[in-house]
Amino acid sequence: MMSATAADDASKDVLYTAELVNDRGTYTLIVRDLVNGTLQSVTVPGKTVGKIPTYLSMIGLR
Fold first, then answer.
1. Organism's domain of life (predicted)?
2. Which of 13, 27, 55, 58 could bridge across to 44 with cysteines, CB 3.0–4.6 Å?
3. In a domain, 56, yes or no
């Protein structure tokens, strides 16, 4: 039997995925648009990486 949570998850579509990769001190943010099949990447300063939790909180407040 499927739980209510599993049933709810089955009706959701993932639109984007994001990864933050650390390669020897260089941070790269990789965002995949699963709807359009595109990928974007950008180098992110370490100082900005430390602020990601703050940015996510700001998004949640809007």
1. Bacteria
2. 27
3. yes
Alpha helices in the chain (DSSP H): 4-10, 46-49, 52-61
Residue 44's closest CA among 28, 32, 31?
28
Q: Distance between CA 56 and CA 20 in Å, rounded?
A: 14
Tens digit of pLDDT at every position of the chain (62 positions): 555 566 567 789 999 999 999 999 999 999 999 999 999 999 999 999 999 999 999 998 86
Contacts of 20 (CB under 8 A, 6+ apart): 27, 28, 29, 30, 44, 49, 52
Global pTM reads 0.72
- Quote the domain boundaries for residue 50: 12-61
The answer to whether residues 46 and 27 touch, using CB atoms and an 8 Å cutoff, is yes
